[in-house]
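Tutorial sheet, problem 5. The three components below are modelled jointly, 1209 residues in total.
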Amino acid sequence: MSRAELTGYGLVRRYGGLTAVDNVNITVAPGKITGLIGPNGAGKSTLFSLLTGVEQPERGKVFLGRRNITRMRPDVRARRGLVQTFQVPSLFSSMTVADNLLVGAENRHRDYAGGLLGLAPHGNVKARQIVTRTLNSLGLEGFADETAGTLPTGALRLVELARALCARPDVLLLDEPASGLDGQETERLSVLLRQVAAEGVGVLLVDHDVELVFSVTDQVYAMVGGRVVAEGTPSVVRDDPTVRSVYLAQGPLA
Amino acid sequence: MSAELILTNARAGYRTIEVLHGLDLIIPTGKVTALLGVNGAGKSTTLRVLAGLLPLRSGSLTWQSKTITTMSTLDRARRGLMLVPDERAVFATLTVRENLQIIAEATGHHDITPALEAFPRLRERLTQRAGTLSGGERRMLALARALLARPRVLLVDELSLGLSPKVAGELFAWLGTVADGGTTVVLADQYTEEALGLADIVYVLHRGECSFVGDPAELKPTVSAEPV
Amino acid sequence: MTSLNLAIAGISIGAIAALSGIGLLVTYRTNGVLNIAQGGIAALIAYVFREMVVEWKLPIWISAVLSLAVISPVIGLILERFVFRPLARRRASAAESLVASLGVLVLTVGMTAGIWGLGSRGDAPSLFPARAVGLPGNTRIGVDALAELALVVAVCVALSLITTRTRFGRQVRAVVDDRQLAELSAVPADRVAAAGWAVGTTLAGFTGILLAPRLQLTPYGLTLLVLETFAVVVAARLSSMPVAVLTALAIGIAQSELSQFHVTGQFSALYLAVQSNLFVAALLIGLLVVPGLRELGGDAGSTGRFSTRGAPPSDPGSLADQRRDILGKFGGAALLLAPLSFAPADLRNAFTVPALALIFLSLVIVTGYSGQVSLGVAGYAGLGALLSAKLAAGALFGLPALPGLAALLLGALLVAPVGLLTGYPAIRRRGLTLALTTFAVGAAVSRFVFQQQTFVSGLHVIPLSIAGHMLSDRWFYAVELACLGLGLLVVRNLHEGRLGRALLAVRDHTEGAAAVGVDVRNLKLLSFTVSSVLAGLGGALLTLGSTSFDAEQFSPLNSLLWFTAVVVFGADSAAGAVVAAAFIVTIDTLAPAGSATLAVGILALILGWLPGGLTSAARQGVIMLGRLFTDADTGWPQPASAGIAQAAEAPSTRRRSVPQALSMPTSSGTPATYRRTVGDGMSTLTPFGQTLIVWIREAARTTGPRTTGRNPTGRNPTSSQAAGRMQ
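Model answer (structure tokens):
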């Protein structure tokens, strides 16, 4: 399976006098889980927004495969295969879980004018199949007809991930997917992420929980003050002196 | 040893995220209790629950064996349960003097000199707007404000955040004297030597649950034995 | 007149606008509520003052003290205590506050109209004597202008003295700086909020009393005039008081100065329009050109809270459901068809129902389905009416006169470009900015088109005829029903299938929808465009029904009333839109003028306790009754727990240091609330329905043995024992 790789070259973003992202290069390889760590204010969130298209870089380019997507809106990027989840789960709270997923699965059909005239079919068999398959593979069948707004946090996170998967991503960008989860649910999440990567999807994981990031990723970028201070396999980054000094305050790493 | 605050089976969170998954907590009277844990473990959320800024979704909170689960923030503050938040802990558009006056007047004391005696550096800044202070001075002002209110229970979020070790050390030392004066202190912090040194009892939070509670001395061996 | 004299003349109106602006800002900064009701309150106080002076013959100063020092602040205190404090307490969204203040606006306008009628009065007393005093250098200045200017200065000085010098003022500034920290510091923020309201409504009273003698006093006219002063707070970005005051004076003076120039030729009408409506022009420009208002609190432009119903299930429901659905539709159709058998006069009254229902449907699309606040719908409706009438009369761009029905439909379609154009600002705008922008567009269209002789003079509304035969009243009503049917069909298509899901996704979580590839921009444009066409169609029918184009019918104030009505009757309900139209028309026909407005206002305030609207409440009532009968034996639906809930119930394997010293149980992670939320069968209920279920269960538990018997937490309160051990 050949999926596209996400790359950012020389990304720069400033707010007033502060350089939030300072000349960062990053690659999210297909079939791999890439981690992004850093203390508060290190520029993780800004870099994430530059990749998803919520913000525009002042300098630098973002590529998905060979296509330059630097100036594309987030929804266009999503249709090209770059799908994100949010720190606060972003489910469509009045819709059922199945319909939430269906929105993701149908994102490449935009015959809105036809829909207005009542021409479009009610649903697409293929889209529904994708939804059913995804629900089953994540063990969410029982939730299919629940209204999303009533789900507990753990289920919300899973459903949001399922919805992202239904949009058939090449690259999945996850913003603190484990926040709000308890230990048990976090373990379950990391198992799922490995499954997703095994299917060829590139995953970028941003999280406060260094323990989780080191345990699940293949490649880690550590940011401090808007710059990448260390990159490599988890064991390399873990032993990096800068990273160690920054995270000393976070408690013993090993 | 008696219990000042008891939090039972607390569930709380923001919008769709539940941060505390049924937390139990006992804060002993007149002692320093430290809540430790990494970012996102639920330390700040716990303090916000105790101060009444965040409603409990389930569970209960008692203070001196009276249930205060639904008491408003204002009433808690008036009765002496006071939180010093980690950021936005001073009124940036007000002068230092006004910042101190506000809290002194609101709690029925009118004299701001005790604060200036505790933190002489603030005396030079009295007419300056709080927003123009340095990070350390702002932190001092926040603590000085809490001091003027003479609270029964003082909740302090991330005392050392963004401070140089020297300033942080001074503030921790000051907090120790406050506790010696009989005030119950609850401190949320990351793992720091100072916090551990000051605390009489330590809770370690992990993902909104309590993963350790006990004497600070017990904590060190336990933590280093924990596999990562 | 010299420039100086003109400037002096302009100061007066500028000072009044400044007072209004200061009042708005004080309320907004202390409460986070932009008091849209300012206009309604101003009109109410102006009428009260006039009543005291003219009817009761009270001396001016007693009337002034009573209305400004007693009634005005008391109104503010009542609003704070009974409307806005409860909202703040339950952390209601900014959108709810917006609707509440719209409700107060509608209520006060309704009260004024209900008590004093809609007729205009030219005898509003002036607070200050109508004399002029001489200034050095052959200039004269009116006492009123001097007094008004002095009042502005006095208010500014008083406010700044109070806030900088007094203890209460410090508390005010603390609350304005950071309300949460103020409460943490034991500062009574509620008292500050109440004071903010009292000052705001008092200044609203001043605005009303001072403006009233300058015009023919009508409830709607004065209210609208005060709403136009919102330009001042928009210029101040909702924060800076000096900017607001200076802008107000500048606009006032500019308006006056512009009157000395005379533009001839084709732009003369436009010039005159701009000159006499400078506040509206400034409001619109201020919102379109200058970026970002400094909004406090949440997103007032998202209306999710009022439209809780989801998409219709994508699978067809059970046979019983379908049968009930069809039954409901037949019932509604029968009601709408009933007027066909009415007496001619009643039938004419019913003309308004389908027309208004179409306008309401357009709001259902924008607000209910797409989640945007739209406070300018009357503008689209009026444009539709104007364009259709012109097409039918052959008066548009030299086009030949079109047959009635074609003119009607084409006229409505021609509104589409306008909808598309105004949809653009809505793509990026949210919150109060979006609400005010839509209002400003409606107000500008009203002032610059509907009230301009160039566009409306000599406009002759040709009664509808088909194939050369003029339609009888019955046939006209049938045509209206056909149009409404068309509208309902469009609305259904917008709510179902892929398109419906995508729209709902954008409404529920715009960023989330974009993140999975939903084309947010085009969907927003689509809903604005379609909505404007439906509104245009409704407006055209409204005008055909009343046989003349009446600018008052499309006043910006009606946009506010209509929006409020739609939210009250359920913003996401097509049926609610039809019912709301029938409700308003029925009350307006049977009861004195203003009653419908009053009723909508009251309902809007009740909405504070009925999130989801009346339709949602009624819908829930039906669902509950159904459940009570069908599920009486089995209790509430059983949990559909699976997946993560089961996974989480598995025994924990993670290592945990148990606090032996205290033998206090740490959390076992039992997902008790999972099972409760998933298992209660509440998932399909609106918030109101959920409240109702809780009540019914409480009642069942106290009166009978039929309880579910579920342990609410599944855990014993052990901490008290642990506490005991600590002692």
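Marking note: DSSP finds 33 helices and four strands in chain C. Full credit if you identified this.
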